Amino acid sequence: DAGVIQSPRHEVTEMGQEVTLRCKPISGHDYLFWYRQTMMRGLELLIYFNNNVPIDDSGMPEDRFSAKMPNASFSTLKIQPSEPRDSAVYFCASSLSQGAHEQYFGPGTRLTVT
Amino acid sequence: GEDVEQSLFLSVREGDSSVINCTYTDSSSTYLYWYKQEPGAGLQLLTYIFSNMDMKQDQRLTVLLNKKDKHLSLRIADTQTGDSAIYFCAESMRGSARQLTFGSGTQLTVLP
After folding, report:
1. Which chain A residues contact residue B97 at CB under 8 A?
2. Whether residue A81 has a cis bond before it, omega within 30° of 0
3. How far away is chain B from the Cα of A95, in angstroms, using its nearest Cα?
4. Chain A within 8 Å of B68 (Cβ-Cβ)?
5. Which among A75, A102, B67, B93 could disulfide-bond with B99, CB atoms 3.0 to 4.6 Å apart, if both were Cys?
6. CA–CA separation, A30 and A50 (whole Å)
7. Sequence-separated (6 or more) residues with CB below 8 Å from residue B14
8. Among candidates A16, A30, A12, which has minimal Cα distance to A73?
């Protein structure tokens, strides 16, 4: 398997623009997680899905952030409008409901909002 | 405060053993994990341990779990320069084995 795939790897945008981050989980995994990593706050869980259904979105910072999972092989995280404080690395991870529940991470999207 | 705590930095000489420590608070955690993050990369799962075990060994890696003290450690034998990275400890969250709580990470620097 190719592992968790994220795109784009880097995104630079201007304040006020819409940003869409994409994730393809490992095939067969039924949990998908979105994280944000910054120097100041470390690794934060934003939202996670089980079988394409959002389970907990309490980590989503505000209404400017939204996430969808239209099918088992694709998820998006959208920021509209983007702000400079959204600059961070955004990771997607997936896991199985069976076993040790270990999460496998994608390479991340480095977002810079100017 | 944080549920999972780690020291921020550790430096060792190449060839020595490294020991990275972690304390956690949720006594009901079922699994505890160690992840490695190299610069510009995602988190890579290194190993995990089930809470009813006290030790797990995997090649150069040894995980020790002291459940009474809620203390987890990762020992890397014969540390190499390629082991330089940030190491994260994580626990499965109370009431949900799917969510993980991560520590702040320990930056391991291996000196030649």
Report:
1. 101
2. yes
3. 8
4. no
5. B93
6. 6
7. B79, B80, B81, B110, B111, B112
8. A30
Q: Do A108 and B42 touch (CB under 8 A)?
A: yes
Q: How far apart are CA A12 and CA B62, in angstroms?
A: 41
- Taking the Cβ of residue B97 and every Cβ of chain A, the question of whether any pair is shorter than 8 Å is answered with yes
User: How confident is the prediction for chain B on average, in pLDDT?
Assistant: 90
Structure tokens at B70: 């809620």
CB contact under 8 A, A56 and B50: no
Q: Say yes or no to pLDDT of A94 above 50.
A: yes
Joined tokens for residue B82: 């390629």
* Residue A84: half-sphere exposure toward Cβ, Cα within 13 Å: 1
Note the pLDDT of residue A92: 97
CB contact (8 A) between residue B98 and residue A4: no
Residue of chain A minimizing CA distance to B51: A100
Q: Which residues of A touch B105 (CB under 8 A)?
A: 42-43
* Cis status of the peptide bond prior to A107, with omega within 30 of 0: no
- Give residue-wise pLDDT tens across range B34-55: 999 999 899 999 999 988 899 9
Q: What is the pLDDT of residue B99?
A: 80
| Pair of tokens at residue B76 | 């890397």
Say whether B82 sits in a helix, a strand or coil. Answer: helix
Compute the mean pLDDT over every residue in chain A, rounded to the nearest whole number.
94
The pLDDT tens digits for B53-70 are: 999 999 999 999 999 999
Whether residues A103 and B50 touch (CB distance < 8 A) is answered with: no
Instruction: Tally the C-alpha atoms within 13 A of residue A55's C-alpha that lie toward its C-beta.
Output: 14
